[in-house]
Amino acid sequence: MPGNTFGQLFRLTSFGESHGAAIGGVVDGCPAGLRMDTAQVQAELDRRRPGSTPLGTSRKEEDRVEFLSGIFNGETLGTPIGFILRNQDARSDDYGHLQDSFRPGHADLAWEQKYGLRDHRGGGRASARETAVRVVGGAIARQLLAAHGVQVRAWVSQVGAERLLIPYQELELDQVYASAVRCPHPEAAQRMADLIGLVRGQGDTIGGRISCVAQGVPAGLGEPVFDKLHADLGKAMFSINAVKGVQFGTGFDAIAMRGSEHNDAFVRKGASIGTATNRSGGVLGGISNGEDILFDVAFKPVSTLMRGQRSVDRQGGEVVLEGKGRHDPCVAPRAVPVVEAMACLVLADHLLRQRAARA
After folding, report:
1. pTM to 2 decimals?
2. Neighbour count for residue 354 (Cβ, 10 Å)
3. For the segment 25-66, what is each residue's pLDDT rounded down to a tens digit?
4. Cα–Cα dist 205/182, whole Å
């Protein structure tokens, strides 16, 4: 079955290509009677849209979401929620040189090897343009989560070697989107922005890290053994363009720790049991333990460079490609709402699945 649908009970199906008439999606499984603030959905979409930060692509898309079904008088009907986003600022001529050549590091060649053909305009469906659909679906899921006291927030915590090491509890996460680089620490944000500007001026690109925390998640979410909560969150993050790594809690740093150091000490918080250190990232045995769920997502440098790169054409001949058009020098700032959206989709799905887990 083609992989265009995500989720089990709360499901998002996306469609469309970067330079087609429109992209869009269908959310199925959203319970009836949920108050739906469509203005808030649009606000989240505005955070991802091209041109939303001066550090990203100069492509200008209004990205006005048009809801086609599933919402009436401000409430969900329990029926499929259909929506579209019309593409208005595509410049397909910028990609004419890619019709018979493949960008190194990009999905161009792999896509053609799989299907035997591809839409070379902007990468077609392999373009990050598709992630706008996820943001709409995630914004709907977020409102379901909010009704259950769950909040999801993400931020850029590293660009290149510039890394923010301050614990998230000490950051003003409400200020993430006040920064062009989507980092809530002004000094670190400026260093990251300066680095992105330097790299862009060299016609190059650079990678980044996004950290995400989900708070208020009830204990018990997750479906062992193959649908563990952090496994589904990992799959969700790896489905985002340019993601090359995901870690929870201490992640790879746990390799150098001993069990006596890494094991979380349980403490009583009011009427519930929590952990003192949360090195597990809020998930134990694939099930949420009631603590904050904390994870990091690593993004590789964008493949399209504004300078020459050696590559090959369809006949196997060597060519030199120089990027044209409008591209992000670092994908991390515009990927923050995408990470949030995918986390919301997973948590909403598991919230609904947990309702059926106990009598």
Report:
1. 0.92
2. 18
3. 999 999 999 999 999 999 999 999 877 777 866 656 789 999
4. 17
